[in-house]
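Tokens in:
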């Protein structure tokens, strides 16, 4: 749980006229980090899930999700019953706070006991869709026997309504929590070092991108930001990704070998990337298993897309599961490995044997870089180099001599 109220002591220092508010510390009901405490579904659907919207006042890991369908009752929601509410009935508190993120601007509501009379007044707040807010309910010093959130009190719904709930507390402070959390954003991506003449760039700050690219051809501006800046580098952001395309003039990639793309997400999941042909509209996808909180680098052989490749006009990401992703260094490139045994500058010999990079004939220090310019290995002068490496492109430098090798 994060961002507990800090004004309680000041608020309680004032003696209210009723004299009924005692100096109690805020009481945590649930922050959903310890698993499911026994929330039950009332006439709709709910679960505990990863927080895909780590922003604003809520950057915690897990939240309660509850959804009311168009045919569900207007009292549908999720309830923590008295049998699972520690200390029930709970007394001595005036307010219940809950951080909420909703897909519409309609009002939720709260019930705190089995009695119909304890359906609380609507909270005094303007609900903003797609944003975390601290929604404060006045429980009127009543006994809290259970916590029952109703998703949407509208009589009729044209589309389903859902909300996320987190950091539920009882308090005697009426002020909403407004502290800004630290958004989870990626580190700056690396700089690729492919020869520009061997690249067709879709989105990469190191190369000149193709002309006529539309990064949002399906018109969802709130979800696509092609100018998200990390330090001094722009990356492409897809917010709350379901599916999203990029469109460009027909591109012949038959002379290319790989599609390179780097993807970052705060969540571990597996989106797909697809190539779409403009002649027959064939679409072929490839999975991208992501590790959370790091740049994931993919070099996808174009042979993995069994389709015509002389008129590619769209690339698509899907299976996003409403996660936010960042994309950098996105381009097609040619296979740079031409021979098993390559000789440079009449002395330096570079070759690959069973996945091992071998260098001989050098009298100087040899440095091996990966495709992002990170040093993988550095030899001492006059050393014959033999290093087992993962599949990928590597750059070998000896003095002013540079060799490029692709290990398959």
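Residues out:
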């Amino acid at each position: 749980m994060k961002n507990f109220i800090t004004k309680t002591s000041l608020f309680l220092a004032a003696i209210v006229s009723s004299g009924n508010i005692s100096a109690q510390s805020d009481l945590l009901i649930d922050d959903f980090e310890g698993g499911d405490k026994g929330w039950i579904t009332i006439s709709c659907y709910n679960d505990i899930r990863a927080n895909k919207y780590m922003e604003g006042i809520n950057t915690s890991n897990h939240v309660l999700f509850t959804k009311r369908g168009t045919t569900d009752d207007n009292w549908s929601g999720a309830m923590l019953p008295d049998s699972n509410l520690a200390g029930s009935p709970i007394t001595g508190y005036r307010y219940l706070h809950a951080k909420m993120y909703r897909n519409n601007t309609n009002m939720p509501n709260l019930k705190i006991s089995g009695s119909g009379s304890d359906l609380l007044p609507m909270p005094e707040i303007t609900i903003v869709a797609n944003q975390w807010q601290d929604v404060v309910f006045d429980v009127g010093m009543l006994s809290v026997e259970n916590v029952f959130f109703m998703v949407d009190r509208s009589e009729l719904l044209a589309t389903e309504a859902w909300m996320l709930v987190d950091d539920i507390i009882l308090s005697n402070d009426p002020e909403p929590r407004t502290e800004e959390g630290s958004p989870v954003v990626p580190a700056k991506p690396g700089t690729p070092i492919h020869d520009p003449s061997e690249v067709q760039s879709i989105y990469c700050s190191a190369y000149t991108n193709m002309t006529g690219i539309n990064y949002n051809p399906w018109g969802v501006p709130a979800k696509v930001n092609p100018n998200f800046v990390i330090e001094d580098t722009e990356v492409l952001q897809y917010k709350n990704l379901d599916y999203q395309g990029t469109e460009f003039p027909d591109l012949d990639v038959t002379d290319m070998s790989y599609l390179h793309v780097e993807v970052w997400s705060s969540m571990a999941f597996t989106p797909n990337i697809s190539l779409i042909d403009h002649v027959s509209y064939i679409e072929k996808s490839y999975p991208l298993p992501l590790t959370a909180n790091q740049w994931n680098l993919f070099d996808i052989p174009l042979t993995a897309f069994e389709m015509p490749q002389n008129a590619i006009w769209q690339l698509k990401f899907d299976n996003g599961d409403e996660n936010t992703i960042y994309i950098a260094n996105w381009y097609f490139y040619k296979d740079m490995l031409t021979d098993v045994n390559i000789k440079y500058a009449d002395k330096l010999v570079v070759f690959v044997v069973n996945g091992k990079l071998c260098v001989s004939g050098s009298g100087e220090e040899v440095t091996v870089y990966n495709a992002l310019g990170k040093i993988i290995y550095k030899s001492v002068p006059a050393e014959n180099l033999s290093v087992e490496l993962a599949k990928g492109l590597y750059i070998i430098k000896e003095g002013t001599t540079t060799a490029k090798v692709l290990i398959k």
